[in-house]
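Hey, I'm writing a tutorial for new members on how sequence and structure tokens pair up, and I'd like a real worked example in the thread rather than a made-up one. If someone can provide the structure for the chain below, I'll link this post from the tutorial.
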Amino acid sequence: MRYLLFILIILSFKICYSQQIVVINIDYVVNNNNDFKNFLESIKIDQIDHRKNFDKLDIDIKEKINEIDELKIILNKQELDNKINENENLLIQFNKKINRFNLHYDNQINDFKKLILDRLLILLQEYASENKIDLILNDKSYIIASNSIDISKIILEKLNNYRFDIKLVPY
């Protein structure tokens, strides 16, 4: 009888002080957010004409390189060096344009991700409070866990109910 009472006390102590732990895959939640996916799609659409222009510039630069190769026999060293320098300057300017182009969109994507993460933090705090969760781990903070404690889909659903007021700034 004393052993049974002892076991019951130990089990009740363990139940009273057990902790609720859940995990979330933040990358999954951010990348599958409906507003974020729509934003990425609008970026792709906005980039179409610009990419065509970059392709044309790239072809022009390659043609100039081929032209220089053909003129090696005809031009003297000074003229050839001038042509090479001109082409190198075009290539440098082209790379700068591409870097500005990429940076323009990367900055907007990062700004949107920051908004999503800010909202995600609020949702996680609410979820933890409502469900008496003691600890929420990111999927990169543990080695293995049961799918039953993964709240990614639940939080994604809540996040998709929120509408972000962000517009793409065209390039």
